[in-house]
Amino acid sequence: MLYERCMQEQPELVWSTEQRAMVPSGQTKIDCEGALKALKLMGQTLGMFKKDPVPEEPRVESLEEYLRRLDEEEAQKSST
Question: Following DSSP, what letter does each residue of 9-21 receive, concatenated?
Fold first, then answer.
């Protein structure tokens, strides 16, 4: 699996001017970025990151807004 391969420790290589080649420095490193990318792609493939649409909450209007809306509706009815 790609994730496991990325998480394996690999020797860190440095340039040796004496040997004119890359040689192990004695430290190890892992490819965290590659591992995270592999996990992200697997999750997307399995549909784990789908955003659920947020239902709109019913809007509660104040008494003033309600009365204003009733006045506007009544005014429209009387004008037609």
Answer: -EEEEEEETTTTE
Count the Cβ atoms, other than its own, within 10 Å of residue 59: 6
Give the side-chain half-sphere CA count within 13 A for 10.
11
> Is 70 in a helix, a strand, or coil?
helix
pLDDT in tens, 18-60: 999 999 999 998 888 999 999 999 888 888 887 776 666 777 7
How high is the pLDDT of residue 46? 84
Give the global pTM: 0.48
Q: How far apart are CA 70 and CA 76, in angstroms?
A: 10
> For residues 24-58, b (16+ Cβ closer than 10 Å) or e, as one string?
eeeeeeebeeebeebeeeeeeeeeeeeeeeeeeee
Distances from the Cα of 74 to the Cα of 8, 32, 59, 60, 66, angstroms: 74, 66, 22, 21, 12
